[in-house]
Amino acid sequence: MPLCIRTNKKFGEIIRKALISKKLLDFSFLPYKDNEYIWFPLIKEPSKKQKEQLEKICAFVIEDKVLSPSEYRPKSFKEILREKLTEKEAEQLVTSFDVIGDIAVIEIPKELENKKQFVGEAILEVHPHIKTVARICGEHTGDFRLRPIEIIAGEKRTLTLHKESGCLFKVDVANTYFSPRLSFERMRIARLIKPNEIIGAWFAGVGPFPIVFAKHTKMKYAIAIELNPKAYSLLVENIKINKSENRIRPLLGDVRKIVPKLNEKFDRIVMPMPKGAEDFLDEVFASANNGCKVHFYRFADTKNPFLDSEKKISTAAAKNKRFVVFSDKRIVRSVSASKVQIVIDFEVR
Length: 349
Ligand SMILES: C[S@@+](CC[C@H](N)C(=O)[O-])C[C@H]1O[C@@H](n2cnc3c(N)ncnc32)[C@H](O)[C@@H]1O
Prior knowledge:
349 residues; Rossmann fold; GMP Synthetase, Chain A, domain 3; binds S-adenosylmethionine; 4-stranded antiparallel sheet; 7-stranded mixed sheet; 3 domains
């Protein structure tokens, strides 16, 4: 006999939605209705705070009630959308979304603004491990590469713990940059790292590149440089969480100011700053050991994506009296119909 919440039938739909968003609704039993009331089965007794929030919606009683088991089969996200959106609306919605820890981050076009809560609740219903749904409200901008977001369903928070390649990262999806789509790149580079390398992990964010390197390679150490104080503070925490204090040195500030003062030569430099990485090439050539490997990320046109970056790298090398050998290049991901993110690997001599 499950624990249930009983309320007046007229509040049925609103309380059902609230229970889903609080992860309290037990889908293994069918709700029951009589002429006046409806009973919803609960996974557990709501906390004091949850009860207070539910009381703001309507009056209710919590009690045991015999209910029939449901033959509930969780619907897919697309099935739920098809029930509530027109065909045209469903087409406008990109149904894939990023998951960072227990937060889903999704783009919802302006035309579907009035359906955003429904879309958020559909994600919570289908994916029990997701606790919060955030809508992306604009592009990444500014030096910190942040994008505006709004929480559209679930718990009102932006901090989460993300797991990747055996590492844990605390991420604030509103105040720091983090993309789970770069996980392949992090491991691709980790596989190239030789024992005892000294690595410049520039534009480090909350630390995913150097922390994955510390976990999976025999590098000597990495110097992780980050400008955004909020990202830097999580970088420091993440280094501790992953027990990498002895192999990653975090520094807060601008690569352009910090690198010349470091008195350090790198065997490898990672530059995950696709907007503007070309402005930091002088710092690369000034701090690269002979044979230093560089991983240079940049946004580019889909047409001839590598040419302009290769020219910029060669020109900066000549200016700094260095020589480069290009070793690899690939498209990391598509950004829009006309734009891609690329990576170029080169060696400095
Ligand atoms: C695209 S994000 C990459 C973050 C991280 N490496 C990742 O993959 O999640 C670029 C990062 O570089 C930082 N940044 C921007 N300009 C910088 C500078 N001049 N010096 C150091 N960090 C900078 C931003 O704050 C941001 O966290």
